[in-house]
Input
Amino acid sequence: MQFFFEPKKKDAEKEAAVEEVLLDGYDRYYRLAYSYVGNPDDAGDIVQEGAYKAIKNSQSLQNIEYAGTWVYRIMLNEVFSFCRKRKEQSTGEMDSIECGREDRYENVDLTRALEVLDEKDRAVVILRYFEDYKLGEIAQILDENINTTKSRLYRSIKKLRLQLDNNWIWEEA
Output
């Protein structure tokens, strides 16, 4: 009889682990969403929808130890989904690269340079330099090979340097 109760116990453990990860990482998830959409209300909606999906699907979590990266992946997917929907709804007023409508960052040049990167490249940069994740963790979150993640990071840094250098040159002239 114990065999029949064990899966439900594991599901409850998974749900509790996911809830704990969500509570501990709420600020990180919000910052991630906000870095893409630039609007506090939209960022809150994204995190709320991601949390709902994570809790609802917690039984599909394969390994409780990876609950953090699993939830982060869900949040990234929600951000990407939101940006795609916004882009589709756009009537041309919004730049095709930009997702958000408000810009409240202190370093406007860096924000604009980040917008040039595609979704996954931008995610690698944000996770590495703004959220202090290690490359192995980022690879797990993005469900990629670590070498692919490294390539994305180095390619993105080159693009950012070029973008920032070009902006500097144009502003000086």
About this structure: The chain is about 75% helix and 0% strand.
